[in-house]
Structure formats: structure tokens, C-alpha cells
Amino acid sequence: MQPTTSTKRPRPLSPHIQVYRWEITMALSILHRMSGMALAIGAFVLVWMLVAAAIGPEAYAFFQKAASHPVGTLFLVGWTFALIFHGLNGIRHLFWDIGRGFEIKTAKESGWLVLVGALAATAALWWYVCPWSDVDSMLIALKQF
């Protein structure tokens, strides 16, 4: 069988991601995938907490100690951001599913709204949850990290 003329021509190559100029929509697409992976990993931590609570006070105390460590707290804050971001961006995708918000300007604006909203909601939630009564206590806790 002889090759056709279309197979003799070199095929076009897709440019690498570094060729493109980064835009908010590109970054949020990648961040959405990363937040999904973080949620999957965080699900194991949630199971660890539930199993520790079911086993007894000693196991749960160990979990609390790990979660209250600065690295554990950083993980929980990151997981909270991933949960909120993934949820808000999922709502954005639902609007896309019904054909709304595909215009370039609207897609960029809604992307920034999702990102800023997720950051603000995460900060507000952790500000409410944390036992810091004042900024000095928070700074002392951050210095331990």
C-alpha cells in the first residue's frame, strides 16, 4: 500500500503551554483540576478524622495534634480553599453548560470573581474558626510555622 500525499506532509505540532500567554481562564482551568486532586487527598484526611473519632479519645487526640500542627493547619486551610474554589468554579461551569458566560470578557470577569470569592471566603471562614482573639496571637502562631 502506497502512502497518500496527506501522510507525506509533516503534521503540524501543537505549541507547548509555555508558548501561550497566561490568562485567567487558563490558570483557573489548571487550578480547578488541582483543587479536585486536593479534595480527593483531603477526603482521606476526613476519613482519618472520622475513624479516629470512632476508635476513641486517644486516637482522636492524635488526629487533633496533627491537625493543629502548623503544617496540618496549612493543609486544612489549603483544603478549605480547594473546596470553596472547586464549588464556586463548578457553579461557573454549570452556567457554561446552559450557554451563559462564554463571552471572553464575561469568562475572565467570572474567573476573577471565583478566585477572589474563594480567597475571601476561605479567609473569612478561617478567621471565624480560629481561636485567635487578636492580631498579635495570630502573628505569634504564624511565627511558629
Q: How would you portray this structure in words?
A:
Its cofactor is heme. It is a multi-pass membrane protein. With 145 residues, this protein is mainly α. The protein has a single domain (23-144), classed as 3 helical TM bundles of succinate and fumarate reductases. The protein is 77% helix and 0% strand. The protein has helices at 5-8, 24-55, 57-68, 70-97, 104-129, 135-144. Helix 4 (70-97) packs antiparallel against helix 5 (104-129). The longest helix is centred in the first third of the chain and has 32 residues, at 24-55. It is elongated and about 70 Å long. The model has no long low-confidence stretch (mean pLDDT 87).
Brief synopsis:
Its cofactor is heme. Its main location: membrane. Helices cover 77% and strands 0% of the residues.
Can you count the helices? 6
Mean pLDDT, nearest integer? Answer: 87
Largest sheet: none
* Helix vs. strand class: mainly alpha
CATH class category label: Mainly Alpha
* Beta-strand content: under 5%
Q: What is the tally of beta strands?
A: 0
Our count of domains comes out at 1
Rg from Cα? 22 Å
Q: pLDDT under 50 segments (min length 5)?
A: none
Named at the architecture level, the CATH assignment is Up-down Bundle
How much helix is in the residues?
over 70%
What series of H and E elements makes up the topology?
HHHHHH
Reported by name, the CATH topology is: 3 helical TM bundles of succinate and fumarate reductases
The H-level CATH homologous superfamily, spelled out, is Fumarate reductase/succinate dehydrogenase, transmembrane subunit
Q: Specify the overall morphology.
A: elongated
Ends distance:
68 Å
